[in-house]
Design a protein that fits this description.
Length: about 140
């Protein structure tokens, strides 16, 4: 009697799926079994039992590892902030186009400014930004 179950065998790939009770894994069929078909079922099961993966142990993720993940998230946020600062500078530099007595086509400039506001919604933001072209 074993405490694992062979769920399936792929004859072409020479592999088998084994439910170990705490994890189900795909394993290559041991060469020893393939080369020795005269083995008894008991011998095959005993040999397969040696393939048992370690039983999971309750472990805590180190804080240092968590900080690395946070650092990566911060890097993305820093990049996003850089792009927003650049976008805001472009908006600030075109404020004058929206004054009532401005000698430009205000609708064209308003459309450009709206495109600048939508930069953070672009796919790939903040790593890939397509800046709108300022009106001539």
């Amino acid at each position: 009697m074993t405490d694992f179950k062979i769920l399936s065998i792929d004859e072409n790939a020479k592999s088998m799926v084994i439910d170990w009770g705490y994890v189900t894994l795909n394993h290559d069929i041991p060469l020893y079994i393939l080369e020795n078909p005269e083995l008894t079922e008991e011998e095959m099961l005993r040999f397969i039992s040696y393939m048992r993966p370690p039983v999971p142990v309750e472990l805590t993720v180190p804080d240092k590892l968590r900080k690395l993940v946070t650092a990566a998230e911060v890097a993305v946020e820093d990049k996003a902030m850089e792009v927003r600062v650049q976008r805001n500078a472009l908006l600030d530099s075109t404020d004058w186009t929206q004054l009532a007595d401005s000698p430009v086509d205000q609708q064209v400039w308003a459309s450009y400014r709206q495109q600048l506001r939508e930069v953070p919604q672009q796919p790939g933001f903040p790593d890939s930004v397509v800046w709108p072209e300022a009106p001539a």
